[in-house]
Amino acid sequence: MPEKSAPYRQRVDEIGLGKPEQTATGAQVMLSWKGEGQGTVRLVRTGGRWQVEPNDYALLKLCRAGIFLSLVDARSQELRCGMFQIPTS
Fold it and tell me: How far is residue 9's CA from residue 4's CA, in Å, rounded to a whole number?
């Protein structure tokens, strides 16, 4: 994905973060694309700080993508691997 990084990073400002909501195991944050909800990212508190839930992070690391770049990839209909399976409308 290195050849796609620059154009993708230019689109990251189209992604928004909602207000964190508490869950039974931590928290979750809604991601939005141009104001439209796209799914949540799960967070857990570890070592005194919040981080992406380890299973989700492992998938992103395996795919060599970040959460935001994975969402841009999904919205560009070029998702090969990652946590978002979002159809472009």
Answer: 8
